[in-house]
Amino acid sequence: MAKPRILLVDDNQSVRMSLKMILEYNGFEVVAAAGVHEALGLIHSQVFDVLLSDLHMPDAGDGLTVVSAMRHSHPKAITLIFSGYPEMKGAASAILLQADGILTKPLASET
After folding, report:
1. CB-based burial of residue 13 (10 Å sphere; 0-12 exposed, 13-18 middle, 19+ buried)?
2. Could you write out the DSSP letters of every residue in 47-83?
3. Among 20, 28, 59, 78, which has the minimal tally of Cβ within 10 Å of its Cβ?
4. DSSP code at position 107
């Protein structure tokens, strides 16, 4: 039985590596990307079951760019975004048009 494949996108290396380890420990196959450009390349070249992306990232684009690309290339994939900005809860209705869910940082881990 194949493990569900997750594309994890976050510009913060410690967050990215911690989440990757936690998700792999819990039975997922995780491919990590450090930013929007890298994530877009992976979305167009590989198949994923889930996208877990930070919303706010430096450089061109943001998490919504990644979510939109995932929705276009892999419409059945579950898309989740997370943010360290608490006011994101207020913008949830607009974002949920593209994403399946919103998580706020810091993300708690229970191993």
Report:
1. exposed
2. --SEEEEES--SSS--HHHHHHHHHHH-TTSEEEEEE
3. 59
4. P
* Contact indicator for 77, 70 with CB cutoff of 8 Å: yes
Note the pLDDT tens digit of each residue in 4-40: 999 999 999 999 999 999 999 999 999 999 999 999 9
Residue 84 · residue 104 · CB < 8 Å: yes
DSSP code of 50?
Answer: E
- Closest to 80 measured CA to CA, from 8, 2, 4: 8
Cα(32)–Cα(39) distance, integer angstroms: 8
CB 80 within 8 A of CB 53: yes
State residue 10 phi and psi, 5-degree precision.
-160, 135
- State the pairing for strand pair 5-9/50-54: parallel
